[in-house]
Amino acid sequence: MSDQSRLFDAGPDPFGRVWRVQFRWLQTGISIRHADTVDVKFFITPDGGEPQEKVVAMPHPVLLSLAREGNRKLSDPLCMRLAAAHLKHMIETSEDMDKTLVTVSAKELMAYDRQLHSTSFAKHR
Predict the structure, then answer these.
(1) In angstroms, rounded to a whole number, what is the distance separating the alpha carbons of residues 110 and 81?
(2) Quick one: how many helices (H) and strands (E) in the chain?
(3) C-alpha distance from residue 95 to each of 54, 56, 66 (Å)
(4) N or C: which terminus of the chain carries fewer CB neighbours within 10 A?
(5) Which has the closest alpha carbon to 11: 58, 55, 48, 59?
(6) So what's the pLDDT on residue 3?
(7) Where are the beta strands (DSSP E) in 1-125?
């Protein structure tokens, strides 16, 4: 996946389709669902298909921990990249594609964070 987390293609999915992904918004879940999460909403559209709404919810305490351990600030771009990485995984595996709201586990967030930062490190070498 490119660094672009606002508009990108993901896939193919298990059925060979490529999906167009569009970022819509990012907000704290506490404001809409009374949950301690950062929610990132995307619209996704498969080749020749209808758009679907997906909201990736990431536990705020886990995000704070990742930022602290990486000695960086918790930022909107970081949250968007982590959510986009999970959505890409969902599309490629078809995991949780039946859900509109998906909560990412701490273990998954840690893996995406390592993946994103090892890629960033390699690009800046």
Answers:
(1) 13
(2) 4, 5
(3) 12, 13, 24
(4) C
(5) 48
(6) 53
(7) 7-10, 19-28, 37-46, 52-59, 101-103
Q: Say how far apart CA 65 and CA 14 lie, in whole Å.
A: 33
Q: Are the beta carbons of 46 and 16 closer than 8 angstroms? A: no
Q: Which amino acid is at 39?
A: D
Cα 62 off chain centre by: 14
Q: Output the six-digit token pair for 101.
A: 């709201």
Question: What pLDDT score was predicted for residue 30?
Answer: 80
What amino acid occupies position 20? R
Residues 7-37: pLDDT tens digits?
Answer: 899 999 999 999 999 999 999 878 777 789 9
